[in-house]
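Thread title: Can someone regenerate the structure for this chain?

I was given the following input by a collaborator and told the matching structure tokens would be attached. They weren't. Posting the sequence so someone can regenerate them.
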Amino acid sequence: MSFVSIRVITGDVARLVAFYEQVTGARADWSNEDFAELRTTCATLAIASTRTVALFAPDAARPSDNRSVIIELLVDDVDDVHRNLANVVEDVVSEPATLPWGNRSFLFRDPDGNLVNVFTPMTPAAVAKFGRSRSA
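Best answer:
Regenerated them for you:
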């Protein structure tokens, strides 16, 4: 089995895609007005409209209703990302802080309220786990 992507259902695909393009620096690949993907070297963030849910099972997913999943993005310098997103992110959950497991994390919500963790491994153990550390 291969983990391929996370799909976020939204009532406004264009708005959420534009937000994640700014956060990730990746350009979205649009299939149609209801579906776009932002691909990185490790994973894909798919963003789909509420109209696509019925194709799977009616009412199986609802936009802006997530309180259990965190979208996590590994970056070279979380503090630099924090500065660069100051005018993009409206809902900061926690400013950059180094957590007990060795990652420096910046937590915020996207325009639909989904939790996003941008992080940089800081300790030797965290660096070993993710294969890179903060750029000097």
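The mean pLDDT is 93.
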